[in-house]
UniProtKB/TrEMBL annotation:
Residue span, ABC-2 type transporter transmembrane domain: 50-181
Protein name, as recorded: Gliding motility-associated ABC transporter permease subunit GldF
Organism encoding this protein: Hymenobacter jeongseonensis
Gene that this polypeptide is encoded by: gldF
Main location: membrane
Ranges that cross the membrane: 12-35, 55-73, 94-118, 138-157, 164-181, 218-236
NCBIfam families: ABC_perm_GldF
A Pfam cross-reference name: ABC2_membrane_3
Protein origin, superkingdom: Bacteria
Length: 241
């Protein structure tokens, strides 16, 4: 699995896709956090990074599917999937290697944004006047959200040989699980609205963004990743048959 992970990760770094993804993410978040007056932390007057953590999921909604769309779809298109599946590798080693390569690239996009935190920390009055617990929880939420989006993207890529179709399927799937359940819950009332909202990512992400690291939220994210990767395995096994 580590060999496949290294191969996939190096392939990303040797292609313009990785740099376009990283560039678009950093430019978009940088403009909204520091430049645009309606969302700039400099004009907002409060030492927080809520703009970053509100915007990043929507950017990930498109960027992570752009990363994952080639994982299996390209292998199918060029005919190397059969060669890969006949190697002495288990399905989980193949899926895990490709999945973690995509996930690590998404995490790589988050690392430069730590400069935003240190900048706001220094600019605070007094210095350090920022809710660090909420910031850590928000970064954890973004990492887990990226893990779920990457799993959905890999599943979409395993279902088709066309990268564009894989991208569109992943975007729709990520949108539905992030915002779809929240939208459905908004038209309901009482207990049904609560339980429906808990099926989506947004409610759990909001809890983590408050600095509340609850085991139920962690179990939710890990469960969605596990289900998506298991579905990916079934998609590959059905192709073998």
């Amino acid at each position: 699995m580590l060999t496949i992970l290294q191969k996939e990760f190096n392939a990303f770094l040797n292609s313009p896709v990785a740099y376009v993804v990283l560039g678009v993410f950093l430019i978009a978040t940088g403009l909204f956090v520091w430049v645009f007056p309606d969302s700039s932390v400099l004009d907002y007057g409060f030492a927080d990074l809520q703009t970053l953590f509100s915007l990043a999921p929507w950017i990930f909604l498109f960027l992570i599917p752009a990363i994952t769309m080639r994982t299996f779809a390209e292998e199918k298109k060029v005919g190397t999937i059969e060669l890969l599946l006949t190697r002495p590798l288990t399905d989980w080693q193949i899926i895990g290697g490709k999945y973690f390569a995509c996930f690590l690239l998404a995490l790589l996009a988050l690392i430069p944004t730590l400069l935003y935190y240190f900048s706001v920390y220094q600019l605070g009055s007094p210095e350090g006047n920022i809710d660090s617990a909420a910031t850590v929880g928000s970064y954890l939420g973004l990492a887990l959200l990226a893990a779920v989006f990457a799993a959905i993207g890999v599943l979409a890529s395993a279902l088709t040989r066309d990268q564009i179709i894989a991208f569109l399927m992943a975007v729709v799937g990520c949108f539905l699980i992030y915002s779809g359940f929240d939208s459905l819950a908004s038209v309901l009332e009482g207990s049904p609205a609560y339980y429906v909202s808990q099926l989506g990512i947004a409610a759990h992400y909001r809890d983590l963004s408050k600095g509340l690291v609850d085991s139920r939220d962690l179990i939710y994210f890990f469960s969605v990743v596990a289900v998506a990767l298991q579905a990916t395995r079934l998609a590959l096994r059905s192709r073998n048959w």
